[in-house]
Design a protein that fits this description.
mainly alpha, about 425 residues, two-stranded antiparallel ribbon
Length: about 425
């Protein structure tokens, strides 16, 4: 592994872990606030207990997210100094604001964790809501910075120099809205299915069913609502990519040759050498229709771009198919769940449904990782789309291979510690939280 590949791998590893921690940190406070609201309105102790249990999880993921996010900020400077030299003054505003949101989140979380029976009960609830809102704002601001890399704006460029910088225009670039909406909905779906799956598993095992049933219902509604809305957001994002980054769309859909009446490809393994796709199912004209509403619209293929400007097709296409496939699976489960609620079937207590939720516990986060792979790999070979290549942005650092090995060990150790802490919290439910009403 050369220094360039090691630097990219280390950044990818850090992002892969951080995105899980940050998604949970963004979403779990809203679950917590809903449970707390139910407690304040109904007075049922079980909702207080669910709130307290979830707040411990929020604290765990807040701490790990803060650590992994700090590591990422150092890595940007150490591994990609050429990129940061030029890009930092342009897209630094959302990172600065994200820091402010982070401090607000930390203060509000402190109020919430230590404010039980000390503050006015509605002020205490509002503190929990602020934790969620500030966490969500933090996520949106970071996504805005990433969106700028896909849709650079807020500057002029000539002779290798960036000037007339407008940080506000850079932050509110053409891609920020679609990326932010898509990412936020994905975070709710992924976290919701993960949380609902854990509680469903405990109900199946008949462990503290009163506690876990209340928790499951809150998480499942959030998860299923997000999963139903997500395809609409995905469609909007795909149209946006088709307009701004046609090479990425061609890689996502493995479109090697420009054509009208372009088919939508389901599955398939791209053969980049022979410029063909094997084992895929084609729906004639559907890709053209999805990006423009007209089956005769011409879709640019990779043959319209120089070889050196083409993204890696195999990785981008497979990651895109995985993301869409898992999204459709979550959509199907969500429709089934809401159909049961609408028809007033008592499905929430049926073991087959609970087992289904337990089986798909990690599916949302796998889809999130696949989606970020599409975003980042599909932008290649550019780190700033159309302006700076990734190969030109990295500065080889002595010992990067050792650094990559150490960081890999640290992150996996951190993941094990987080899993242990969450397991301990779940085991402590009978002792601390599952108190008869």
């Amino acid at each position: 592994m050369n220094d360039f590949l090691a630097a990219r791998s280390q950044m990818a590893l850090s992002l892969a872990f951080h995105i899980v921690f940050s998604c949970i940190g963004m979403v779990m406070p809203f679950f917590m606030a809903v449970a707390h609201f139910y407690y304040l309105r109904s007075g049922k102790v079980v909702y207080r207990n669910v709130t307290k249990a979830w707040s411990k999880g929020v604290a765990i993921f807040f701490a790990t997210g803060a650590v992994s996010g700090t590591v990422l900020s150092f890595e940007l400077g150490l591994l990609w100094p050429t990129f940061m030299k030029h890009a930092g003054p342009i897209f630094g505003l959302p990172f600065s604001l994200e820091g402010t949101a982070f401090f607000i989140e930390a203060i509000a979380l402190g109020f919430f964790l230590y404010g039980w029976d000390r503050f006015n009960r509605w002020f205490h609830w509002c503190a929990g809501v602020v934790v969620g809102v500030s966490g969500l704002v933090s996520g949106i601001l970071v996504v805005a910075a990433n969106a700028w890399m896909n849709s650079p704006a807020g500057f002029e460029y000539a002779h290798g120099k960036y000037f007339n910088v407008d940080p506000v225009k850079a932050m509110f670039n053409a891609a920020w809205y679609s990326e932010a909406v898509h990412m936020c909905i994905a975070a709710f779906a992924a976290t919701g299915f993960a949380v609902a799956g854990v509680h469903a598993f405990m109900i199946v095992r008949k462990r503290n069913t009163g506690f876990h049933t209340k928790a499951f219902r809150i998480a499942a509604v959030f998860a299923c609502a997000a999963a139903i809305v997500q395809p609409l957001s995905g469609d909007h994002s795909a149209k946006d990519v088709a307009r701004r980054q046609p090479a990425k769309l061609a890689a996502m859909e493995a479109v090697f040759h420009t054509q009208s009446h372009s088919p939508l490809l389901i599955g398939g393994i791209p053969d980049e050498q022979n410029r063909t796709v094997n084992y895929g199912v084609e729906l004639p004209g559907m890709l053209s229709f999805m990006i423009s509403g007209d089956t005769h619209t011409e879709v640019k293929g990779l043959d319209q771009f120089p070889i050196e400007d083409q993204p890696p097709v195999l990785v981008t296409h497979l990651a895109f198919q995985l993301m869409v496939g898992l999204g459709m699976l979550m959509l199907a489960i969500s429709l089934l769940y809401f159909f049961g609620l609408w028809r007033k079937h008592n499905w929430q207590e049926r073991r087959w449904l609970l087992k289904l939720f337990a089986l798909v516990t990690p599916v949302g986060f796998i889809a999130v990782e696949a989606g970020w792979t599409v975003t980042e790999v599909g932008r290649q070979p550019w780190i700033i789309y159309g302006f700076m290549r990734t190969a030109d942005a990295v500065t080889p650092m002595p010992g990067i291979l050792y650094s990559f090995s150490i960081f890999t060990a640290v992150y996996f150790s951190l993941a094990l510690v987080v899993c242990f802490l969450l397991y301990r919290q779940i085991k402590m439910v009978p002792e601390l939280y599952d108190i008869p009403e």
